[in-house]
Design brief:
By secondary structure, this protein is α/β, with parallel strands linked by helices. 41% of the residues lie in helices and 13% in strands. The structure holds NADP nicotinamide-adenine-dinucleotide phosphate.
């Protein structure tokens, strides 16, 4: 397939990975159609199926970000993939999550993986990243009043840079034949504790930042109070327990294997991102 003339549909295009995938693909010379509910080339809403066909029109490649903040979406994604089969799609790269190959089929993310594996009409790649480093600068691990509040104890996680995830995704879409059926689990180069991450963020932002290892039930309640649906907050609580019990992601070589460059360390991500914690303008 001559991918340079192929169009890529990027879902979740204003999000942490989608925005970076779109930029990577454009830099590779691939035509991109960004999609989300607002702020993208086309309006795409998982809950409004009338927006799906236009998003897929002429698209040969799809970066698939499933509906966020919910647990029950396998059918919705399946219907979208049916539509993709009837359109011009040749390859789908799916954003899954670390360890999902061990999840039961009833877990929606695993359900989507199995659905893709079953389809012969287009090829696919599955990308299962560790926790994103950007959680510390863009979402739920951002320091609040000098504390990163999360019940991960002394457990470690091989946090991965969303830039590296995007580079892996872009590589699969740029060369689908080489990555057909591939499953990658992008991780950072080191497994670190949240306290270790806080120390690095302290250094680069020149202010005291600590890890506050809060009670898990209290954290889940706070997450719900912040607007996260209760069932999703429970799932996030389970993920924090995975780390706390020593079962967090461990480093592997997938980023380097796919992109040819070593994964970004937390220190390098933090240096590059220091403005997020100091409030200084990005230069
Ligand atoms: N954070 C982590 O550490 C981590 C680790 C592994 C896997 N993941 C997975 O990453 C996924 C999220 O990806 P991300 O972090 O790149 O995205 P994100 O930053 O959470 O952004 C979500 C994107 O989806 C769009 N969106 C939200 N609701 C939508 C809807 N109803 N219809 C269509 N688009 C919608 C948003 O734009 P609009 O709001 O404008 O529509 C936005 O572009 C989750 O499924 C999560 O399981 C996360």
């Amino acid at each position: 397939m001559n991918t340079i003339t192929q169009k890529a549909l990027v879902l979740g295009a204003t999000g942490k990975t989608g925005s970076r995938v779109a930029r990577n693909l454009t830099e590779l010379g691939i035509k991109v159609r960004t999609a989300s509910r607002s702020g993208s080339d086309v309006r795409f809403d998982w809950d409004d199926t009338s927006t799906h066909a236009a998003a897929l029109q002429d698209a040969a490649l799809v970066y698939l970000v499933a509906p966020v903040l919910r647990l029950d979406f396998a059918q919705q994604v399946s219907a979208f993939l049916d539509l993709a089969e009837r359109a011009t799609v040749r390859h789908v790269t799916f954003l899954s999550a670390y360890g999902m190959e061990r999840a039961p089929a009833e877990v929606a993310v695993r359900g989507v993986e199995l659905d893709l594996i079953d389809r012969a009409h287009f090829s696919h790649s599955i990308v299962r990243p560790a926790w994103f480093m950007q959680n510390f600068s863009e979402t739920f691990l951002q320091p609040v009043d000098g504390a990163i509040i999360v019940p991960t104890g002394d457990g470690t996680e091989a946090f991965v840079d969303a830039e590296d995830i995007a580079a892996v995704v872009a590589a699969t879409l740029a060369n689908p034949e080489a990555h057909a059926g591939a499953q990658y689990a992008p991780t950072g180069p080191h497994a670190i504790t949240v306290a270790g991450a806080a120390e690095i963020i302290s250094d680069v932002s020149d202010q005291p930042i600590v890890h506050h290892d809060i009670d898990r039930r209290a954290w889940i309640a706070g997450t719900v109070a912040a607007g996260v649906p209760a069932d999703y907050a429970e799932m996030l609580g389970t993920l924090t327990d995975t780390i706390a019990t020593g079962n967090g992601a461990t480093p592997n070589t997938d980023v380097e294997r796919v992109t040819g460059r070593a994964p970004t360390s937390f220190a390098d991500y933090a240096r590059r991102t220091a403005h997020a914690w100091t409030g200084e303008a990005v230069r």
